[in-house]
Design goal:
The protein has 876 residues and is of the alpha+beta class. Helix content is 41%, strand content 21%. The protein is built from 26 helices and 32 strands. Bound molecules: phenylalanine and zinc ion.
Length: 876
C-alpha cells in the first residue's frame, strides 16, 4: 500500500488548531509559468489550546523565502516535506510570517489552486486548494480577514477580481496594473479566490431590503455576454427570495460571478466572487435547453445561498460538509420549487436522488451523510452528502412543522453567524427553538444505507378493521454491519375506489398533519369500522429518503394515478406500475421469454394525457431509466435484458396510444417564440416525450416528425430532443442529422458536449467505436473536464448496456481513460471511476470482467489518492 492511501482522517481525532490566523495579505503577480505570491500572515497562538509548533499545509509549492517579523528564517529553522512546512522554534506570541512562493499556473492540470483556463487566471480552493497557492493553515476552522493585491500585465488581464470589495486599483510601469480587494468577513482559505483575465461583463444591481445597493457582475469570455442574461436574472431572483424565505440579506457592496470553461465541478461559492463552470452560466435559446436553464437557475441560487449557509457560517472540519451542502441544496430546491412547479421539481429531485444517491447508498461507496473517516476529501462531494443531506433537512421541517423549522433556522443564522460550526450545533438550534428532543433524528447523520420500510395492509371485511403494519430495515453498508431504527416521517392519505379522499382517524397509533412517524423497527396503525379496504397513498411527496415496499395492486395504482391529491404520488403510481412491468420484462428477457404487456397501463397513460399540467404529464410518461430498473433488480443484472425490456415497453405504449400521442404533439405545436419559463418548458417536455414514444411505437409517423422538428426548431430544446429521438434509430437520417448538428455548432464547445453525450448514450454495439472515434474529434479534449465527462463520463454512467458490454470492451476503454486522466486530473478521473460502483450487482461474467478492469486500475503506480481511494473501496 502506498503511504498516501494509508492516511486516514478521522472525525474522532479532531482537535482545534494550535495557531490562529487573524489577517492575511496576498500579493500575487500573475505570470503564466512564474507567478509570485507574497503571503503575509498575522498569526497568534490559540488561547484555548496548548502551545505547539506551527505546521502549515503546502502542496507542490516552490518556496522562495520565509520571514518572521521581517527577519528571514534560515532553512535550518524549518522543515518541509510533501505536505507540510514546520517551523521549529515558534515564539509563543502573535507574530507576522511572510511567505513567498512561486507557482506555475500553466502546468496546473489538476485545476486546484491557481490555474489558467482559456487564457484567464483563476483559482479553486475548496477543499484543499489554497495550500497550492501558499503555505497556510488550510482548514475551515481557521478564519481570517483577507486582503488581496493582484498585479498583472494590463493587456493580458485587464480584469482583476478578488473577494469582497475593491478598495484600490491603478497602473504600474511597463504596462502592468494592480487591484486591491478587501473582504471584511473572516473566512476560511477554501473561500479565497482571485481572477485575472480578458473578460466581458454583464452588469446589474440589487438593492437589499435594508437599502444596501449591491453591484452585480457576471464575467464571461468576451463575445459571450449575450448569453449571461438569464444567469443575472436568476441571481437577482435568488437574492430577493433568500430575504423573503430565510431573512438572509447580502453583506458586501459587490457580488461577482466568473464563468470559466475548465472547472472540475459545477460552481464555487467563494465570498463575493463565485466561480462557475460556464456550462452553468451561459444560455441562449439557440444553444441551451430547458434543462440547462433550470440548472443555471438552481446553481446560481445554490452558490448565492452559500453566502449565509457556508460562508457566514462555515464548517468546523470537512466531516461537517453536509452542514453547508445539504442545507444549501435544500434551500436551492425550495427556491426552484417556488419559482417553478413545486410538484415537478420534487419529482425531478426524487428521480435524481434515487438514481444517484440510492445507488451510492447500496454499493461499496456507501457512507453516512456525515462520514466518520476519509482518505481523500475530494471524494466526499457525493450525492449522499448533498442530496441525502438535503432530504434530512426536509424531514426535519416535516417533523417540526414550517413555523418551528423557520424559528430554528433563524436561531442558527444568528447564533452561529461568524463561526465554523458542527452538525451538533445546527441541531441544537432546532432543539432550542422547538423544545423537542432530536437525539433520535440526529442518527440519520451517522448511519449509512437507505432504510427499507415494508408496509403490510390487513383488512377484515367481517369486523371492518383495517391494520397497517410498518417494518423498517436498513441493509448493512461498509463498516456498519448492524443498523438502528431511524425516525421516518411517512405522509399518508386514504382514498375510496371512486377516488374520493377519506379522512380516517386511527383507533391505535397516531397520524399528525397527515404524517405517521415510524420511530421503531415495527409499528402499527389500526382503524375500525370501515366498509371496505381503503386505498393507501403512502410516503406522499416522498416525505423520507427510503425505499418503500408495499403491495399496491394495479387497480389501486390506477385509482391513484387518476385521483391522488398529491401530484407526486400520482406520478409515483405510474412509475410503480411501469417499474413492475419493466422488472418483470427484464427477467423474462433474461430467461428468453417474451415479456407480458399490460394494456391497461397504456390506457391509463392515454387518459393522463388529457390533464392540464404538461410538465407533470411529461414526468408521468417518462419511464424509469435502465439504471433505475437495474437497481430495482439488485442482483445478477443483465444490462441487455434491461435495455430490451425498457425498449419493449416504450414500443408497446407507442403502438397502443400512438394516435393520441400524435394528436398531442400536433396540439402542442407552439407559434410563440421561445421563452425559458417553466410553463412553456413543460409543454415542450410533454410534446417531446410524446414524440419519443411515437417514434418507437409508430416509426413510420414519428421519425418523419422528428426529422421535421429537428429542421424547423427555433430553439435548442426542441432541436436537441428531435436529434435525441433520431439518434435512437439507426440509419441514414440519424447520421445526417448528427453531421448537420456538428457543423452547425462546431465552434460552440458547450453545444458539442451535448452532441458527444448523446452519441455516447446510444445503446448499440457500434457505440464503443463511435466513442473512440469521437475522442479524435477536433472539438474533443482530454484536458477539459466538460468534454471528458460529456463523452466518456456519459458512456460510463448513462449507457449501461454498452459500458457493461459482455465482452468487457466498455470497461477496457473507460479504465484506460481513467488511468490516463489520473496523471493530469485525479478528481475528474475519480468521478468517472464512480461508474463502476454497481459492478457487484451484475451477472457473473460481467462482474468478473469489471473486477479485472478495477484491479488493473488499482495496480497502477503511481496512482492519485483520489483514484486509489475509490478503487480500493469499490473492490473491498
Ligand atoms: N462547494 C461547491 C458547491 O457546492 C462545490 C465544489 C466543491 C466546487 C469543490 C469546487 C470544488 O457548491
Ligand atoms: Zn454547495
Amino acid at each position: 500500500m502506498r503511504p498516501d492511501s494509508a492516511r486516514i482522517i478521522r472525525l474522532a481525532d479532531y482537535t482545534a488548531p494550535a495557531w490562529l490566523i487573524e489577517t492575511v495579505h496576498i500579493d500575487a503577480t500573475l505570470d503564466d509559468t512564474r507567478t509570485r505570491v507574497i503571503a503575509t500572515l498575522h498569526l497568534k497562538p490559540n488561547p484555548n489550546m496548548a502551545s505547539g509548533p506551527l505546521v502549515l499545509d503546502g502542496d507542490e509549492l516552490v518556496l522562495e523565502s520565509l520571514a518572521l517579523d521581517d527577519v528571514t528564517i534560515p532553512t535550518s529553522a524549518y522543515t518541509i516535506d510533501r505536505r507540510t512546512l514546520t517551523l521549529n522554534n515558534t515564539p509563543n506570541r502573535p507574530f507576522k510570517l511572510t511567505v513567498i512562493t512561486l507557482l506555475d499556473p500553466a502546468a496546473n492540470t489538476q485545476l486546484m489552486g491557481l490555474y489558467r483556463s482559456s487564457g484567464n487566471y483563476c483559482t479553486q480552493c475548496e477543499a484543499e486548494g489554497f495550500r497550492r497557492i501558499t503555505f497556510f493553515l488550510d482548514r475551515p476552522d481557521v478564519m481570517a480577514v483577507f486582503t488581496t493585491r493582484i498585479v498583472a500585465k494590463k493587456d493580458e488581464a485587464p480584469v482583476l477580481l478578488g473577494n469582497g470589495n475593491r478598495v484600490e486599483a491603478g497602473d504600474l510601469p511597463d504596462g502592468w496594473h494592480y487591484a486591491i480587494w478587501h473582504d471584511p468577513h473572516p473566512k476560511p482559505a477554501y473561500l479565497f479566490a482571485l481572477v485575472g483575465g480578458r473578460l466581458g461583463k454583464v452588469g446589474g444591481s440589487f438593492t437589499t431590503r435594508s437599502g444596501r445597493k449591491v453591484e452585480l457582475g457576471i464575467y464571461v469570455e468576451s463575445g459571450k455576454e449575450n448569453r449571461a442574461g438569464y444567469a443575472l436574472d436568476a441571481l437577482i431572483r435568488s437574492m430577493r427570495w433568500d430575504e423573503e424565505a430565510f431573512g438572509c440579506e447580502y453583506d458586501l457592496d459587490v457580488f461577482n460571478i466568473v464563468a470559466v470553461s475548465d472547472f472540475n465541478m459545477g460552481a464555487m461559492e467563494n465570498k463575493g466572487l463565485n466561480i462557475f463552470n460556464d456550462k452553468y452560466v451561459l444560455a441562449s435559446p439557440e444553444t441551451a435547453t430547458d434543462a440547462d436553464y433550470a440548472n443555471i437557475e438552481a446553481i446560481i441560487a445554490h452558490e448565492y445561498f452559500h453566502n449565509w449557509t457556508g460562508n457566514r457560517i462555515t464548517c468546523r472540519d470537512w466531516f461537517q460538509l453536509c452542514l453547508k451542502e445539504g442545507l444549501t441544496v435544500f434551500r436551492d430546491q425550495e427556491f426552484s420549487a417556488d419559482q417553478r412547479s413545486r410538484a415537478v421539481k420534487r419529482i425531478a429531485d426524487v428521480r435524481n436522488l434515487r438514481s444517484q444517491q440510492f445507488t451510492e447508498d447500496s454499493g461499496p461507496l456507501a457512507h453516512p451523510v456525515r462520514p466518520y473517516e476519509y482518505h481523500e476529501i475530494n471524494n466526499f462531494y457525493t450525492p449522499t452528502v448533498y442530496e441525502k443531506g438535503a432530504e434530512l433537512i426536509r424531514m426535519l421541517k416535516i417533523l417540526l412543522g414550517a413555523e418551528l423549522f423557520r424559528q430554528g433556522m433563524d436561531l442558527y443564522l444568528t447564533r452561529c453567524d461568524g463561526t465554523a460550526a458542527t452538525i451538533e450545533e445546527f441541531i441544537q438550534c432546532f432543539v432550542d427553538a422547538s423544545g423537542r428532543d432530536l437525539t433520535h433524528f440526529a442518527k440519520w447523520y451517522g448511519q449509512a444505507g437507505t432504510p427499507h420500510v415494508a408496509i403490510t395492509e390487513i383488512f377484515d371485511p367481517a369486523s371492518g378493521q383495517y391494520r397497517i403494519g410498518f417494518t423498517q430495515m436498513t441493509p448493512a453498508t461498509p463498516g456498519q454491519p448492524a443498523k438502528e431504527a431511524m425516525v421516518i416521517p411517512i405522509a399518508l392519505a386514504f382514498f375510496a375506489k371512486d377516488g374520493q379522499e377519506l379522512k380516517l382517524k386511527p383507533s391505535l397509533g397516531q397520524i399528525d398533519n397527515d404524517v405517521f412517524v415510524l420511530e421503531s423497527e415495527k409499528s402499527e396503525l389500526v382503524f375500525e369500522a370501515l366498509k371496505e379496504k381503503p386505498i393507501l397513498s403512502a410516503l406522499r411527496g416522498f416525505s423520507a429518503p427510503i425505499v418503500l415496499q408495499i403491495d399496491t395492486t394495479d387497480e389501486e395504482r390506477l385509482v391513484m394515478l387518476a385521483h391522488d391529491t398529491d401530484p407526486f404520488n400520482r406520478w409515483q403510481a405510474a412509475q410503480g406500475y411501469a417499474m413492475k412491468l419493466l422488472k418483470a420484462g427484464a427477467i423474462a428477457k433474461r430467461e428468453g421469454r417474451e415479456p407480458y404487456f399490460d394494456s391497461r397501463f397504456a390506457d391509463a397513460l392515454a387518459h393522463a394525457l388529457r390533464g392540464q399540467d404538461h410538465a407533470l404529464i411529461a414526468q408521468v410518461l417518462a419511464l424509469p431509466s435502465e439504471n433505475d430498473i437495474a437497481r430495482e433488480i439488485g442482483a445478477d443484472v443483465d444490462p441487455d435484458a434491461v435495455r430490451e425490456s425498457r425498449l419493449g415497453l416504450r414500443k408497446a405504449i407507442g403502438e397502443q396510444i400512438g394516435h393520441e400521442l400524435h394528436a398531442l404533439w400536433l396540439s402542442l405545436t407552439s407559434t410563440e417564440s421561445y421563452r425559458p419559463d417553466s410553463k412553456s418548458a413543460g409543454s415542450r417536455a410533454l410534446r417531446n416525450v410524446a414524440l419519443d414514444l411515437l417514434a418507437v411505437g409508430m416509426p413510420e409517423i414519428g421519425l418523419g416528425l422528428a426529422e421535421q422538428q429537428y429542421r424547423s426548431a427555433d430553439n435548442m430544446t426542441d432541436r436537441f430532443a428531435a436529434l435525441a429521438i433520431l439518434a435512437q434509430h439507426s440509419g441514414p437520417a440519424r447520421e445526417e442529422a448528427l453531421t448537420h448538428f456538428a457543423h452547425a455548432f462546431e465552434t460552440d464547445p458547450l453545444v458539442l458536449d451535448k452532441w458527444f453525450s448523446l452519441q455516447a448514450s446510444i445503446p448499440e454495439a457500434e457505440t464503443l467505436d463511435r466513442v473512440k472515434r469521437l475522442m479524435g474529434h477536433p472539438g474533443f479534449s482530454m484536458k477539459n473536464p466538460n468534454r471528458l465527462r460529456s463523452l466518456v463520463g456519459a458512456f460510463a454512467a448513462s449507457n449501461p448496456s454498452q459500458f457493461n458490454r459482455a465482452d468487457g470492451a466498455g470497461y477496457d476503454l473507460v479504465s484506460d481513460i481513467i488511468i490516463n486522466t489520473d496523471r493530469a486530473n485525479p478528481q475528474v478521473a475519480a468521478r468517472i471511476l464512480g461508474a463502476f460502483k454497481t459492478w457487484r450487482t451484475l451477472e457473473p461474467k460481467r462482474r468478473a470482467l469489471a473486477e479485472a478492469a478495477l484491479r488493473k486500475i488499482a495496480d497502477q503506480d503511481p496512482l492519485s489518492p483520489d483514484v486509489s481511494d475509490i478503487v480500493t473501496r469499490t473492490l473491498a
